[in-house]
Write a sequence for this structure.
């Protein structure tokens, strides 16, 4: 089977300071820009192929570039070197509540977010009940109240329910499984498993070894921006844990 | 060519664009029952105040076409669209950062969204213009004529110009932190050097040529052409021609600037 995601020689460079803080004031009065020009490669020389139906876990310490890689696959960051080719639709579970507007009711928000991901109105209507059921009775009771009155847990539950009903064959998950209470987490897990059962491709970023083991079979180990290991998840986790023990000494 | 491929990319996502526009309008109008009133109240009150200042205090009745109040309304409504887009698009990328970070849409859509939703607000405010035109027609002061066909063309030209301008402003303001403040000042200055309160013919030569470089001068000429009599102030065709060229130029520059800055902006937000 031809790969559904191909990453080739991927690299992205960032400024060391989080913000470049260009400012008109400085440009005019100091005739230069004091923003730090120092850069670093958050990711470099990353290459791999993912076949349809694979479940991949991204492993790595903080600042290893996991989220950055996920964002480039999602197409919300553009690489400076190399290329990412994604041959199918993507449902990104990144910044879940990003599309929601506090002023609008939960009902409107469901239509809005699903619409942003390209779901037609009829399709949303079809899935509406399913989404609300999944999000739970509290959300159902508050369907017509403004979204900003929701508790943070309810917000994430609703967002998770909407994004996981998208029919996309590739699912990207960034640390969002650890949401809601225990009961809801179980529900999320079951939803994820049923999605995987449908033969979807999963790309998971998590610090939780349990989540990684539960959902993924293949592991990619990112260490300071390099792909240091690509293999069965168990082996990758062993290597990662060994490195962590070294680092904490 | 980038302009064509990117436009196609945005158009292929027009249902998403529409969703965003509807969201903008809903947010604007759900916040208060006065939503629509706010849209038309601002230009109306400003027209009234300028009318009082220039006609009753300064005693100038020759600044623009007659009736002067209609002249003011016909200028302030499109100006509100213009200034709304300039202010909003300079916030567009930062305000929507969370959405931009989580959905893979052609990024030009965030600019198109602002121009379209402000444009719809402008169209919704047109009944005010119709109302005052009818009122002055009944009084026998208005001079509707065939050049009214230029009004929709003026709307199209303003739309294209705003897309180009927004594509420049949105990424630049996302990268330069204090740009928004600079733009606010420039916008206020621009208001007075654009023939909104006075007719383009009132600008003394040779400085009138400078105002032609601002496509809004041409746009306003087109929008006003059909509403007034041109015995004293003939239509400024040169302003329309120059404005058209600058508009197309801005559109090309806009797409080029946006393409160049898209990458750093995505890293920044």
């Amino acid at each position: 089977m031809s790969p559904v995601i191909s990453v080739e020689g991927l690299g992205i460079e960032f400024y060391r300071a989080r913000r470049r803080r260009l400012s008109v004031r400085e440009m005019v009065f100091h005739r230069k820009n004091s923003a730090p020009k120092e850069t670093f490669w958050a990711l470099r020389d990353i290459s791999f192929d993912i076949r349809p139906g694979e479940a991949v876990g991204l492993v790595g310490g903080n600042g290893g570039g996991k989220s950055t890689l996920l964002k480039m696959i999602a197409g919300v960051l553009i690489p400076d070197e190399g290329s990412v080719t994604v041959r199918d639709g993507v449902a990104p579970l990144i910044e879940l509540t990003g599309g929601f507007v506090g002023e609008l009711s939960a009902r409107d928000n469901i239509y809005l977010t699903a619409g942003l991901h390209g779901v037609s109105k009829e399709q949303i209507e079809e899935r509406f009940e399913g989404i609300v059921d999944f999000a739970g009775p509290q959300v159902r009771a508050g369907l017509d109240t403004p979204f900003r009155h929701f508790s943070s847990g309810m917000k994430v539950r609703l967002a998770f329910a909407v994004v996981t009903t998208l029919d996309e064959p590739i699912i990207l998950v960034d640390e969002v499984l650890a949401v809601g209470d225990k009961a809801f987490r179980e529900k999320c897990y079951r939803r994820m498993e049923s999605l995987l059962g449908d033969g979807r491709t999963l790309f998971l970023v998590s610090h939780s070894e349990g989540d990684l083991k539960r959902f993924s079979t293949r592991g990619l180990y990112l260490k300071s921006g390099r792909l240091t290991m690509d293999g069965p998840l168990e082996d990758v986790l062993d290597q990662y844990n060994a490195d962590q023990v070294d680092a904490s000494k | 060519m980038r302009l064509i491929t990117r436009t196609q990319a945005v158009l292929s996502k027009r249902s998403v664009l529409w969703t965003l526009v509807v969201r903008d309008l809903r947010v604007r109008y759900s916040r208060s029952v006065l939503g629509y009133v706010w849209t038309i109240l601002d230009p109306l009150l400003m027209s009234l105040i300028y009318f009082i200042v220039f006609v009753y205090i300064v005693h100038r009745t020759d600044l623009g076409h007659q009736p002067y109040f209609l002249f003011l309304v016909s200028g302030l409504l499109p100006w509100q669209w213009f200034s709304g887009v300039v202010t909003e698009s300079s916030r567009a990328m930062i305000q929507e950062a969370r959405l931009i970070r989580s959905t893979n849409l052609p990024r030009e859509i965030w600019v198109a969204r602002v121009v379209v939703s402000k444009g719809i607000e402008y169209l919704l405010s047109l009944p005010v213009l119709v109302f005052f035109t009818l009122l002055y027609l009944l009084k026998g002061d208005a001079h509707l004529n065939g050049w009214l066909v230029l009004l929709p063309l003026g709307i199209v030209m303003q739309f294209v110009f705003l897309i180009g301008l927004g594509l420049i402003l949105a990424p630049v303001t996302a990268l330069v932190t204090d740009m928004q403040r600079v733009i606010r000042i420039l916008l206020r200055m621009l208001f007075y050097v654009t023939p909104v309160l006075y007719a383009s013919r009132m600008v003394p030569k040779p400085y009138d040529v400078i105002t032609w470089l601002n496509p809004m001068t041409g746009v306003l000429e087109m929008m006003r052409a059909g509403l007034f009599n041109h015995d004293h102030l003939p239509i400024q065709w040169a302003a329309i021609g120059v404005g058209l060229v600058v508009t197309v130029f801005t559109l090309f520059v806009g797409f080029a600037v946006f393409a160049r800055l898209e990458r750093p902006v995505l890293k920044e937000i």
Remarks:
- The mean pLDDT of chain A is 85.
- The longest strand of chain A covers residues 39-50.
